[in-house]
Amino acid sequence: SQTIHQWPATLVQPVGSPLSLECTVEGTSNPNLYWYRQAAGRGLQLLFYSVGIGQISSEVPQNLSASRPQDRQFILSSKKLLLSDSGFYLCAWSLSGGRLYGYTFGSGTRLTVV
Amino acid sequence: TQLLEQSPQFLSIQEGENLTVYCNSSSVFSSLQWYRQEPGEGPVLLVTVVTGGEVKKLKRLTFQFGDARKDSSLHITAAQPGDTGLYLCAGGPGGFKTIFGAGTRLFVKA
After folding, report:
1. What helix, strand, coil percent values describe chain A, rounded to 5?
2. CA-based nearest distance A75→chain B, Å
């Protein structure tokens, strides 16, 4: 069966520090991978998606970046965090665009920038 | 810009009551999904509906996609404390740009 792992679960980082969140998927090949951010009282905001190794599409201009160094590994990074980067970050995977089979989400990372 | 509006934002009911939550848009969606999210966890897919007028049942949960594919509803019969959570609807015109609503937070009291 397919599983998705995301870590760390919680993170407190000072403003201006770097960030690296990692997500890995098991049990499937060539998944579409996504990074979402969820703010309190708001829906999930798509940050990045990837359809293959090295292929990254950005949806929101910001100081975050994403990389996909391996087929089932997706990394969210920042060189210098801002207070506004605080939130709940979710990694997800899908078959095709997710229209028919939906998305499988990781358990999320709660990031607090102080 | 496509938007999905969910109502109510918050709902607190007693165990055994019935409830309906709504997901509305002015745009047409090729498909619509419902997820349930518990605190500190990622959303979990409940159902996908793709055909206008479609009705799907999942135990005590009934999902309906509007005829014009612009809205959807989720009805829960005889709610239980285990139904507590954030219910999110999500829709897309196709491709990768799925839009999520802000959710309905349901609390079922024993």
Report:
1. 5, 55, 40
2. 17
